[in-house]
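Fill in residues.
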């Protein structure tokens, strides 16, 4: 594993190589261009070997002399140059900071380099894909929202943090959890429970579930950020911990599970560093209504949007396995969905004392 210094040197070399290629084209009086991977659905595929969503090998040229590309070309060079400065100065900034650092009126014109952050963010992703690095490795951060607790210690810079002693709030997962920034120490756990919702995570923490059941509990408070996904992948790869996903029984919760497991289409260029294919779906499912005798009155009728999303997911390669097809069909047949909080109808601690322990013991998972 490269040291922080070695990684920074490698990142800087990749960025300078990009700049050198542009300069050489200009010196030869050629129209300069930057070669970038095509980041559209047509260049995304599911790789059965790695069990992750990947970006294909199609590329396109961002050409300075093509009037449709000129502005984007300028923005790409600006972002690459600024990131190289950050790396050399060993400074981390937010993607919002980067946007403001680069936004200015071009001399002699009324044009701004960037009008909105929605222009700079895709350029960052283009560079990530082009040089095969996460934005965290480019010294860029985003707002973090995940929380985690369990029997382990984290060395964050010079500070050692005991996740046993985080109280009711847990430890806030930072945006950069790369090995050269975050070291995992003294881990004692049998598995990871990835919980969709913050409120449900709080129930598990308050009930001391992780202490009684020797596990790590984490939430991304809905759709998880890259940091939570990366940290879970590290725990799985480095410590061989199984990962169980606890989500709402609706197409949105199930899609979040698939993002944790296989990755997302939008981040297909980096999913080998983010996805955890070993993740198993613990629940909730529509079948649980009968298994656990959940009262029908806590179910929620499907909307037309839900049905549309279910049909879309049924066609995804990573949801083609028979148990998932049966679950989607059952959901449409029953015409309802459920939230995890619906289990409270069976008792406030039913989810921590009965539902999850029983599902894990019986290995009642969806693949």
């Amino acid at each position: 594993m490269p040291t922080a210094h070695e990684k920074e040197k490698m990142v800087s070399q990749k960025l300078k190589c990009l700049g050198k290629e542009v300069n050489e084209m200009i010196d030869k009086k050629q129209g300069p261009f930057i070669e970038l991977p095509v980041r559209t659905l047509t260049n995304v595929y599911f790789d059965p070997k790695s069990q992750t969503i990947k970006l294909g090998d199609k590329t396109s040229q961002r050409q300075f002399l093509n009037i449709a590309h000129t502005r984007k070309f300028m923005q790409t060079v600006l972002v690459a140059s600024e990131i190289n400065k950050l790396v050399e100065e060993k400074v981390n900034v937010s993607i919002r900071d980067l946007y403001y650092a680069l936004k200015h009126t071009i001399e002699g014109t009324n044009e701004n380099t960037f009008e909105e952050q929605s222009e700079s963010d895709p350029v960052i992703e283009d560079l990530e894909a082009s040089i095969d690095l996460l934005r965290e490795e480019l010294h860029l951060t985003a707002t973090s929202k995940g929380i985690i607790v369990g029997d382990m210690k984290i060395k964050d810079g010079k500070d050692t943090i005991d996740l046993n002693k985080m109280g009711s709030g847990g430890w806030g997962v930072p945006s950069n959890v790369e090995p050269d920034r975050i070291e995992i120490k003294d881990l004692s756990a049998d598995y990871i429970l990835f919980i969709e919702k913050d409120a449900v995570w709080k129930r598990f923490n308050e009930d001391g579930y992780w202490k009684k059941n020797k596990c790590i509990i984490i939430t991304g408070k809905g759709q998880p950020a890259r940091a939570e996904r990366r940290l879970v992948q590290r725990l799985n790869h480095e410590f061989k911990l199984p990962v169980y996903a606890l989500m709402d029984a609706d197409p949105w919760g199930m899609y979040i599970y698939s993002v944790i497991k296989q990755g997302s289409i939008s981040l297909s260029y980096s999913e080998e560093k983010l996805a955890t294919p070993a993740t198993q779906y613990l629940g909730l499912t529509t079948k649980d209504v009968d298994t656990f005798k959940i009262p029908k009155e806590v179910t929620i009728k499907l909307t037309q949007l839900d049905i549309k999303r279910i049909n879309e997911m049924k066609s995804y390669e990573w949801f083609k396995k028979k148990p998932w097809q049966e679950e989607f069909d059952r959901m449409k047949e029953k015409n309802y969905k459920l939230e995890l909080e619906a289990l409270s109808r069976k008792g406030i601690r039913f989810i921590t004392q009965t539902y999850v322990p029983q599902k894990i013991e019986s290995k009642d998972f969806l693949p």
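The longest helix spans residues 4-27.
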